[in-house]
Amino acid sequence: MPQEFNLQEALKLAIQTEKNVMDFYKEAAGVTRNPQGKKVFELLAGEVDIAPIPSIEWARNASKLMLLPRLCVSSEGAVDSIQLVTRKPLEQVRVVAVTPESATSVALTKVLLPDAIQAPLESYDSGEAEAKLLIGDAALRSAFEDPTPHYDLGRLWLERTGLPMVFAVWACPEPLADGLAAAGPDVVVVPLLLSTGFHLTADIGQATAAVATGAGTHGRTATAAAPRVTGPLGPDPLLSTALAARLTETGVPAGTPVVLAAAGSSDPVAAAQVRSQADLLAGELGAEVVAAFAAAGQPTVQEAVADLRARTGGPVAVATYLLAPGRLHAGPAGSGADWVSAPLGDHPAVAALVLDPYRAHRSAA
């Protein structure tokens, strides 16, 4: 007779097999096994060049560390390997025993249970804590072996916010602060950004502030003041000149309605700046121009193209309001427009926009 399938034993075998395989490859590659929470200190000290770290640790050190794009540990709903085990209903939990192995999960537990006190993991077994936080193999095993109610933190977060959760990211030391410190006090930072947003107000702002305070500069002497930072490149008539030139290069007939396709931002000021640029471009072209967004904001590029075509009954062009090609350019390219211009790139008008604020800030010094 065939042997009865035991799901719990199969899970244990799968976990142990994965661990053995990963340990083999780590040893072969010379990768050191180290908790993610400790790796952030190695990154900040310059002992490692790149590492996976808890997302909360990146948030705490955003001015000193740079994210690697499109690499993270995340879930949209249940993650399975991060479990809150509780003897009482969530609303009755007063003490949670937390693992030291995941700073992000500990922080997320505090967000989900803001009134609960957090205690060492052993306090659950002693009876002091009504709930405990488990991650990784311990969480997976507990979900199958322990009949105590389990709550998946990824699912709880999705139910509360409707958003996915990023638990860990890959990061490397942010070179901007060190580069500014090495350049000396007479520095002007011209952000290659078409509108304001988080990168300008937070990333660049924190990096320049770090130079003034001496933080994150690996022992270099701080400057007397933070480096001067110009504003975003847009909105500006010179950008309308460059956008119009790119449309002409693409073969767009004069008078064609246009969708100005920007990257997008959650910052309402950034969205307003894009719409101002759309108005400037409309004046340059003598045609209707509608602002739209590829990543964040409304309307999307595809929605704007469809709406403009329905209202005008004719062809529609997309003016790509990006500096360089990349993942965001795929949105305008797949919008259904009749023409899609190339990114602004190295157009002379863009170069002039970089030089003008630089010269103005230098002369004002």
Your description of this structure?
- The protein has 365 residues and is an alpha/beta fold.
- It has four domains: 7-71, no CATH class; 82-169, D-Maltodextrin-Binding Protein, domain 2; 174-229, no CATH class; 237-350, Rossmann fold (3-Layer(aba) Sandwich), CATH 3.40.50.
- The chain is built from 14 helices and 14 strands.
- Strands 5-4-6-3-7 form a five-stranded mixed sheet. A four-stranded parallel sheet has the order 12-11-13-14, with helices on both faces.
- Helix 10 (237-250) runs antiparallel to helix 14.
- It starts with 6 loop residues before the first helix and ends with a helix.
- 35% of the residues are buried.
- Residues 24-34 and 216-224 have low confidence and may be disordered.
Largest pleated sheet = 5 strands, mixed
**CATH class annotation of the largest domain:** Alpha Beta
Distance between the termini: 88 Å
How many separate helices? 14
Q: Which architecture name of the largest domain does CATH use?
A: 3-Layer(aba) Sandwich
Number of domains: 4
Salient structural properties:
single chain; 365 residues; alpha/beta; D-Maltodextrin-Binding Protein, domain 2; 4 domains; 5-stranded mixed sheet; 4-stranded parallel sheet; 14 helices; 14 strands; 19% strand
SSE map:
Blueprint: H1 7-29, H2 36-44, E1 51-54, H3 55-60, E2 65-75, E3 82-86, E4 95-98, H4 103-112, E5 117-120, H5 122-125, E6 131-135, H6 136-145, E7 150-152, H7 153-161, E8 165-173, H8 175-183, E9 188-189, H9 198-213, E10 228-229, H10 237-250, E11 258-264, H11 268-285, E12 289-296, H12 301-312, E13 317-321, H13 330-333, E14 339-340, H14 348-364
Parallel strand pairs: 4-5, 4-6, 9-10, 11-12, 11-13, 13-14
Antiparallel strand pairs: 1-8, 2-8, 3-6, 3-7
